[in-house]
Amino acid sequence: MKNETTTTIMLILLALALFLGATVEYGHGSVWIGMLLMSFAIILLFKIKFTNEPVYRSSKLLAVSGFLIIIADIGYNYYFNSQIGTLDTMTILFGVSLTAMAMKNSHMRKMGSFGMYISMSFIILFVLFYNTFPKLGFEFIRYFDQYLVVIPSAYLGNMVGVPGEVLDLESVFVSGKYSMKIGIGSACSGLYSMILLISIIISYAITERINATWNILKMLCFSILTAWVANLARITTLFYVAANYGSDIMMTVHTHLGWIIFAVVAMIVMYLLTRIENPNVGRV
Hints:
Layout: H1 4-28, H2 31-45, H3 60-79, H4 86-101, H5 106-135, H6 140-159, E1 164-168, E2 171-174, E3 180-183, H7 191-207, H8 213-245, H9 247-277
Antiparallel strand pairs: 1-2, 2-3
Helix pairs in contact: 1-2, 1-9, 3-4, 4-5, 5-7, 6-8, 7-8, 8-9
């Protein structure tokens, strides 16, 4: 029989993918679909079982802190009339995780610990790449978008029969039945997915106390490469859809395709991670 760890990790990744999908649907798709995905994510979280017990006690301070973080983030977006984005999602997850860590139930505390490490890692990396580096004059995002996303995606578009011309750092002009300029902003560059995958691996390694440092590093490199290739495939697909079916259909596909690809990639990556921890996982 398959190791219980595999089932646990798959549930975690599926729940996170649904959680991410709900966020995307809220902002760009259907609110009802978003609510449905969020409901499924919550149901899955309650079915997760962790192998190690938490080593800390519950705390009312954690519960209050988590609640205040959630209220602050939602209140900020409401006051400035802004949409809930990926960073907001991770901030809310951080607040929810702190609240769960304050509960007496050890299972809920362990879930909270896992979520805390994921959200905290994501927020730190997000601030590093999108805030700290630009202030230091290191234009990592600009070079990443241009040389690792825009130019390769235009090249792949030409390979699949969708002529694409790079116009500037963040846009490609595609030609076909429908010709148009398609912008590829930082949110669509795939860097979010890379950061989230890195955060998941770090969180799992800490929570489950995995000591295979070299294997974890190799897994991180593999995850980054896989996320990059998957995102290029996603953008190329959007080019094809835009050129052949128009911008409206392209935007519909854009809303749903990203988080679905993330779910598939994340599950593959985490399955391989469980094999690092236990080489017999998945064997009978």
